[in-house]
Amino acid sequence: MWRAWVGFNFSHSLGVVLLGVLCICAGVWLGTVVIPAWVLFLLVVISGIYLALSVLYWFRIPTAGIGVASICLLVAWLMYAMAGA
């Protein structure tokens, strides 16, 4: 049971790390490479899913951090979508 618990937590934390890496890459490449608006929207959706999970199952501090990150991603997507239109 312990190995299953550790494996579950490790695999899901890798998902969070991957989301962070994708967000950083999108931020770095945004000025030099044309990124489709749907890619940024996908990051917003994934962040929203993590926010919902955080509200249901985690503590206040991670929820606050994920909430700020989700809002920042949403604002970035809206600015990028409006600038491209």
Q: Tags for this entry?
A:
85 residues, mainly alpha, elongated
Quick recap of the structure?
The protein has one domain.
Structure commentary:
By secondary structure, this protein is mostly helical. The protein has one domain (2-84). The chain is 87% helix and 0% strand. It is built from three helices and no strands. Helix 1 runs antiparallel to helix 2 (37-57) and helix 2 (37-57) runs antiparallel to helix 3 (60-84). The longest helix has 28 residues, at 2-29. The radius of gyration is 15 Å and the shape is elongated. The model has no long low-confidence stretch (mean pLDDT 85).
Give the SSE map.
Elements: H1 2-29, H2 37-57, H3 60-84
Helix pairs in contact: 1-2, 2-3
Q: Quick one: biggest sheet? A: none
Give the CA-based shape.
elongated
N-to-C SSE string, H for helix and E for strand: HHH
Based on helices, strands and strand pairing, what is the structural class? mainly alpha
Radius of gyration: 15 Å
